[in-house]
Amino acid sequence: MFAPPVNRLITELARLPGIGQRTAQRLAFHLLRASEEEALALAEAIKEVKETVGLCEICFNLAVGPQCRICEDPRRESDVICVVEEPSDVIPVERTNEYHGRYHVLGGALSPIDGVDPEDLHIEELLTRVAAGGIGEVVIATNPTTTGEATALFIADGVRERAPTVTVTRLASGLPVGADLEYADEMTLGRAFRGRTSA
Amino acid sequence: MFAPPVNRLITELARLPGIGQRTAQRLAFHLLRASEEEALALAEAIKEVKETVGLCEICFNLAVGPQCRICEDPRRESDVICVVEEPSDVIPVERTNEYHGRYHVLGGALSPIDGVDPEDLHIEELLTRVAAGGIGEVVIATNPTTTGEATALFIADGVRERAPTVTVTRLASGLPVGADLEYADEMTLGRAFRGRTSA
Asked: CB A47 to CB B46 under 8 A?
């Protein structure tokens, strides 16, 4: 129905997550209407990101150059590693301003059903980092989902085996701030009970 | 918080309509994770569309080359012109398979508040087309909104003045198929009454 270049753009936009055919069409028409400058700025930004951004050789966070900005920062505590699933998980942790250590990005979570086994994630690299010494604590911050939990258990076991003196912790699980008991699901409420702290 | 190229990509993505900061971040991380090939295919599609797609010199629909595929198609009836606001409005009309004539894309709707005056739209070009002869009917298919209605009235007047023998029609307004009277708004229901047809 559209000219081939328009169809191609719609197809490419529709491959983005959460962007259906309709939205892709709307975005394509926006880009068609947009100034040459605005549209090409997006195209250039995509190219630039693919050309310049890679993974940190230490922690597998996003990095321009061999190491990410956190691994390069001498002010960050070097004896704590926070383990997250994806590079995008680093941001919310940073935003808390509660954490001043380093990271290790796994690149996903264990999920045998989807064919994600330990060797598909950067788990061995984490264990090597921890076993090399100088690490006091590993904070596991995988998602509180089935796959995230499985990954956390696997990593906790691995760290205990390779570096028995290192403390392994997990993020607390419980009621989110502002939640209402009445609407809390049983899983979350159960966790909140098990993890109750002295008032 | 992110590396500069990542920030730039997020900023550019967030300029798209309906894409907020959060979604832009999610899309950026998707593109970072995506294969080089997939991400660059999107960048290329944007560039290609801006380089190759322009507006039809006759009807201002999108066109690769000087004229759009509809104006170039000798099988389309050349004595009827359907007037729409945007190139994206051509698609739903085409999908009905009810219309076999040509189009005229205004490039928007009159909206003095937003500074859109008749000379900002392709209205003069439409009137010139109609006045040149060979046109039996102009079907105005602007949106049933305040600005679309105002535009329709303005165009109807213009056509009547410049080509008094040409029939000017508007799309019927009324209850959408599958609608429920109970939930219809008064405007729509009022239109449905005024436009009632013999059963």
From this structure: no
